[in-house]
Design brief:
The structure holds two protein chains of two kinds. Chain A has helices at residues 8-32, 40-58, 62-84, 89-109, 111-114, 133-157, 159-169, 171-176, 181-207, 217-230, 237-256, 264-285, 298-310. By secondary structure, chain A is mostly helical. Chain A has a single domain (8-310), classed as ABC transporter involved in vitamin B12 uptake, BtuC. Chain A is globular, with a radius of gyration of 20 Å. Chain A starts with 7 loop residues before the first helix and ends with a helix. Chain B has eleven helices and two strands; from the N terminus they run ααααββααααααα. Classes of the chains: A mainly alpha, B mainly alpha. The interface between A and B is large, with 40 and 43 residues.
């Protein structure tokens, strides 16, 4: 039993669960609020590296390190958001992408702090119950991810959630109704980014040793592909998208089908080749994703009517 | 290093760094100007151009300067194909600007990993024959570097002249400014767009070849260029070919100056920070 509940499978499932959380955060930021955040993996990575540095370099206990990493990620995101969130969506996209490049470059270049591409660690599990540690930790990740999805679900039908949808539809209109759109968006961005940092800090013991590639642009793009594929406006869009991409390729294909190592490169390239193709096909033929548009609730249907009357 | 030497190095190395960049940024800008979206897939025009040229040159033994020509032309064709097969149908369906960028990321992944599947993941080097070492203001430079620098600048300024001085360029600008008005005046938007996408792809392909000459060719070649191309295009005001040329030169020189004083990573970081500040200042002024 202990054999099955530890090792590679649990590791892959843990990563999968964390990615689902990230894709759900992306859903909240882009699907709900329209913030085209192309720096999400760096924000996540910031939380991950901060907690690891606190633990490895300053001997922090795990829980305070996670809390501090979460708060710091939120603060940094607040700063970034202050600078770029009031720009148009293309500028937000390239601005966050530039932020990602800055963080990634610094993590690689500042070897005295992060050990560069050699990686930093080890970050151990906060408890040691023998072979079951990994599995119990996976359950903790699962619980937090489920809590996050519950929050995203509540958010959609809450007054702030509806405000965000209205901002996305027509920001000047919401502003003219006296809604503090920029401040709301900024706080929401900082809060959800802090959550990404929190999941980064939580993911650190799963990886044990951290490398810059864990936070690189490929991760951000994979998350985007997953969310668009799943359905950007649906709560389960991120979940479905991650299962259809990483779940299918990295977990099922790699663990069920025994692939000789000399073909590993081909598999890796085919994976991203197909991600690209799928993304093109989805955006061209089913832009709302696998899950499609949500059947609108009464409240949202009403706002829809008002928009139509104006149009 | 004396200050005079520092200035000279900055200028010469900066120019070498920025020539392919200026070329790539002009091509990138053409598409933005015409269709109004950021095409990340443009990166793969550079990668494919470099791969075709290096295959003809290093594997099939063609002369480098002859190998460039079909490589650049084919990059242009690839660019037209992405336009006709993916981007034009998507624009017709009314896909928004942010989704267009994500779509172009999809195109980029598709092409880049398609290239990886064909050529594998190893590095390729150009076979340039005999190398002569020359001196430009006391800075060492090879004959190939000098010729590539010249070619990149000639093509970049040639495109500039094309846009601003020819009838076709005028047609293109008219179409970019107001499609309906242009169509009423008898301009065929598909024909003009195909020409623009072809030229843009050609510039991207050549920029890829020149980057490959200065370093090596691998599948990440265009991908590593695209963020800087994006910065150059945005700093030079996206859509403005003149701005792309000036910003391209500026970016190369600033990065080189910071790199010479500190290390390459800080050159990149400085550039990115300047970029974010510029985005912000523009917004405040607007």
């Amino acid at each position: 039993m202990g054999q099955i509940l530890s090792g590679y499978y649990v590791y892959m499932l843990s990563i999968l669960v964390v990615y689902i959380a990230l894709a759900t955060i992306l859903h909240a930021q882009f699907g709900l609020t329209g913030i085209a955040n192309f720096g999400l993996s760096a924000i996540w990575g910031f939380g991950m590296y901060t907690s690891a540095l606190l633990i490895v370099k300053l001997n922090f206990p795990f829980v305070p390190a996670v809390i501090l990493a979460t708060v710091l990620t939120g603060a940094v995101s607040m700063g970034i958001g202050r600078i770029i969130l009031d720009l148009d969506s293309q500028s937000v996209l390239v601005g966050t992408l530039a932020f990602l490049a800055i963080i990634e470059t610094l993590v690689i270049s500042e070897k005295w702090l992060t050990n560069g591409v050699m990686g930093i660690g080890p970050v151990n599990y906060p408890f040691d119950i023998g072979t079951y540690s990994q599995f119990v930790y996976f359950l903790i990740l699962l619980i937090f991810t489920m809590a996050l999805m519950y929050y995203a679900r509540k958010l959609e039908s809450s007054p702030p959630g509806r405000l965000f949808l209205s901002i996305q539809d027509n920001e000047p209109l919401s502003q003219s109704l006296g809604k503090p759109t920029f401040r709301r968006k900024l706080f929401f961005f900082a809060f959800t980014s802090a959550l990404a940092g929190f999941f980064g800090a939580l993911a650190a013991p799963t990886y044990k040793f951290l490398f810059p590639k864990y936070m690189g642009p490929a991760i951000t793009f994979t998350l985007w592909i997953a969310l668009i594929l799943g359905a950007r406006k649906r709560i389960f869009g991120g979940l479905v998208g991650i299962l259809a991409t990483i779940g299918l390729f990295d977990v099922i294909l790699e663990s069920v089908v025994p692939i000789p190592s000399r073909y590993a490169g081909i598999l890796y390239n085919s994976k991203y080749f197909l991600y690209g193709l799928t993304l093109i096909l989805v955006l061209m033929f089913r832009p709302s994703g696998i899950l499609g548009e949500k059947a609108k609730s009464l409240n949202i249907a009403n706002t829809g009517k008002i928009h139509k009357m104006e149009g | 290093m004396s200050f005079a030497m520092f200035l000279k190095s900055t200028f010469v190395i900066g120019l070498l760094e920025s020539a392919p960049l200026m070329l790539a940024a002009v091509g990138f800008t053409l598409i933005y100007r015409l269709n109004g979206f950021i095409n990340i897939g443009y990166a793969e025009n550079a990668t494919l151009g470099a791969y075709l040229a290096v295959t003809l040159n290093a594997i099939l033994g063609w002369n480098f300067y002859i190998a460039i020509i079909p490589a650049a032309l084919f990059s242009g064709v690839l660019s037209v194909l992405t336009y006709l097969i993916v981007f034009r149908p998507a624009m017709k369906r009314g896909v928004g600007p942010t989704e267009m960028i994500i779509l172009s990321v999809g195109v980029s992944f598709f092409l880049r990993y398609g290239i990886s599947l064909i050529w594998g993941s190893r590095l390729y080097n150009f076979n340039l024959g005999k190398t002569d070492y020359l001196s430009l203001f006391g800075i060492g430079i090879t004959n190939t570097q000098l010729i590539c620098l010249g070619l990149a600048l000639v093509v970049a300024f040639g495109l500039y002249a094309f846009i601003y001085k020819t009838k076709m360029g005028e047609t293109m600008r008219a179409l970019a400014d107001n499609e309906e008005l242009a169509m009423i005046s008898g301009i065929n938007p598909v024909k003009v767009s195909v020409v623009v996408w072809f030229l843009s792809g050609l510039a991207g392909g050549l920029a890829g070849v020149f980057t490959g000459v200065f370093t090596w060719v691998n599948t990440g070649l265009g991908w590593h260029m695209i963020l800087v191309i994006l910065l150059v295009a945005i700093i030079g005001r996206v859509g403005d070919v003149r701005g792309a040329l000036i910003a391209g030169a500026g970016v190369g020189i600033i990065t080189t100056a910071v790199t010479l004083v500190t290390q390459p990573a800080y050159g990149v970081v400085t550039l990115l920070v300047i970029f974010i500040v510029i985005l912000k200042i523009r917004k405040v002024r607007a």
